[in-house]
Amino acid sequence: MTEISAWDRRAAKGTPALAARVLELVASGQASSRAELAGLLGAAASTISLTVAHLVERGLIAEEGTQSSTGGRPRKVLRPGSNDEFAVAADLGGRHARIGVVLPGGGLTDVSTVPFVIADGPEAALPRLAETLEALAEQRGRGRLRGVGLSLPGPVDIASGSVVLPSRMPGWNRFPVTAWLEERFGVPAAVDNDANCMAVGEHTVRPAQRRQTIMVKIGSAIGAGVIVDGRLYRGATGAAGDITHMRIDAGADIPCSCGNTGCLETVASGAALVRILRERGADVSSPEDVARLAMDADPEATRAVRRAGDYLGQVLAANVNFFNPDAVYLGGILSTLEPFVAAVRSQLYESCHPLVTEHLAIERASLGADAGLVGAGQFALQRSLARALSEAGAADQFRAPAPRHV
Hints:
5-stranded mixed beta sheet
């Protein structure tokens, strides 16, 4: 490895954050060459090369082979330091959890659905889930496990690693989920809400030029994750993307779990559709039941689903006009229904400025039910890499040397 001069170190002052961002992009599969990194980060090629060199020195990134380029010398391919490392992750629902092994670059394997009753509370539910994830890690090789990620169906305080005031998670409020996982598994853990996990998971497999996107999950509840300039945007207090409690005229008299009336969730969520159809005499008890009726062309279910899509589209239109994203992705059980997706798309085209929708992609999540799983695993791997970067003392290497007095 070429020795890095003091002059180069001085030029690289202030790049610890850049090193972390480079790790994030390479680990997630969004960049596999120095040229791609420079383009995504808007940094000089020399700065990127220096940063990559530091990370290669410490084994956090590896360079191998070449890939074709549009001109000049072939590019070396960048990848995380070890192909064997992995995270185990789980996407939690009310009655089940989807689990799997997430690899650097967004690869996913060993996916399955297991029983998980979120209403049992964390003290009872988490140990059972942990046993399942530990068995999954043992199959893959426990010594290569680098992180554990959870996608949770409620608001998450990232700083404390806990769920805050969830509406359908009795006993989970302020429970230290991240700390519990790290103590149990002995590796870095990451938890986030399901919409954020889906946004990050979907972003890793989409074209790199789509750097401003909105991911909406429509299951029992509704949530959204926002990607700004290629990164998850959390907002000042971590509540960015909470469209659930935006008011809508159609639900003016319907009480919401937040204490207000007329929230989007009361008229467009899976739980709302169950309530609406039961009031009309349908035998449904879950959003999955609603979906089955709609796919069987039941008139009442199809009409209710289409109306829910229209309501969601009305709320999204204001956000799309304001944000001007490259894409809107739809995930969750209701996104599998064409009448719902068509209604959302129609409302956006009708209500948004033509300049905003001219190149706007409105699509189902390509990862489907696995988007949240991939995102949770990516969060865990990024946390592991950040810790490895810190422990390797790489940040100190980027600090400019003290000036010499002449």
